[in-house]
Amino acid sequence: MEKTFAGAKLRHLREDRSMSQADLARVLEISPSYLNQIEHNARPLTVPVLLRLTEAFGVDAEFFASNDTGRLVADVREALLDESVGASVSDSEINDLATNLPSVAESLVKLHRRYRDAVENTAALVTEDGRGQHGSAAAPLPHEEVRDFFYERENYVAELDERAERLAVELGLVRGGDLRNALRDTLAESYGVHSTSEGIDESRGEQHRYEPDTRVLRMAPSMRVGQQAFRMASQIALLEHAELINELADSWAFSGSAARSLARVGLANYFAGALVLPYTEFHSRAESYRYDIERLCDHFGVGFETVCHRLSTLQRPKKRGIPFSFVRVDRAGNMSKRQSAAGFHFSRVGGSCPLWTVYEAFASPGKILTQVAEMPDGKRYFWIARTVYRNIGGYGTPGKIFSVGLGCELRHARRLVYSTGLDLDDGTAATPIGMGCKVCERQACPQRAFPTIGKQLTVDENTSTFVPYPAVPKAD
């Protein structure tokens, strides 16, 4: 069994409750000296002590798990690897910082991100366009800000999730067409909103439109039953929980009204997902089906992407699902959605890894692919990926295709139906991937598109190598 060292977390938790070591030691039925050793990582947490801690503080055992810092470690590494920083630190030093001083590590990451934004803004100000005019400062992209907002919350919004489930129980919501009809009736009876499929111009790509003055919700006829239910649930969120949604949006320092409005839409959509797929029932079905996504799609009458996104939000205390990371990409490598309840790190620099199965899925449309992937730090993940396609027109009209990926740490893989028959203990079967070429430490990767920032290159005019951008060998 892996030993758990959680001294810093325990110390911060104790100090937040204004307890002395002697006070906590009495509660845990151990000596103050023993507790002092635990807080300084001289001794690991034992199972009996861990159980008493969860009872004393009302937290889950997972709160003390060391893997909780994995994402912060990756963020700090990316910040310190920046060539403009030029820091020379070891992985153990980064891990110690993230584990023992998480607030300092988070502040470092935020400062680095603000620094990168300032550099981009300065570059925009001094760059002239073709007419000799100075460009405007590059403002943060609203959708990136909203991604960070949900990322920091580990893709779980308890306030909305719990309210959505209560409403689902109160309304006695069921699945499929009955769910859509129940939500239509709720909108009409409780909010005076009329739902219709008329008045939408799909030729211009319009999918829905709410008209506050007339209280009419218009939805495109081509929208599937599950999509219509989701849209009506989102409208209920904006009508019923506007004050809460505003409060949540105001808790984050968004750069402007566009980002804040996009966050409100995201929060309303989160509520919709939690209403259409109520937490307790969905969690129970996911566990009983061994997270078989297609069975969940059939049971709840929603699409593949919707189920994957909901699976990544199952982080309710004392009723947690597998901590998944969720991502949606296009063929060009653009990441339009990324959320994580696990330690998997999505790079903000240099794109993603071409060896990731999420991109391979485009070669097998509609087929679920699996992959055991190993990050440069040795941590392994189990990924599944499949393409999703949507077209609102007829033959010859352009649609949109994405690859949706869902991943978890390898230790959870046996709980998934997709691991059946796989040898998860075979380390040689893992695909070595990275966070993106510019920050990836795998110097011997033949698929590398950029050199690693902060690494000196070997440039020899008289030789060539199969591996692009070979690094200077370390001196003996």
UniProtKB/TrEMBL annotation:
Q: Which GO terms describe its molecular function?
A: DNA binding; DNA-binding transcription factor activity
Q: Does the keyword Repressor apply?
A: yes
> One GO CC term of this entry?
cytosol
Q: Which domain of life is it from?
A: Bacteria
Q: Which Pfam families match?
A: HTH_3, Peptidase_M78, ScfRs
All copies of the HTH cro/C1-type domain together span 10-64
* Keyword entries, A-Z: DNA-binding, Repressor, Transcription, Transcription regulation
Matches recorded under SUPFAM superfamilies: lambda repressor-like DNA-binding domains
**Entry-linked PANTHER family:** HTH-TYPE TRANSCRIPTIONAL REGULATOR, HTH-TYPE TRANSCRIPTIONAL REGULATOR SUTR
UniProt record similarity statement: Belongs to the short-chain fatty acyl-CoA assimilation regulator (ScfR) family.
This protein's name: HTH cro/C1-type domain-containing protein
What is the scientific name of the source organism? Haloechinothrix alba
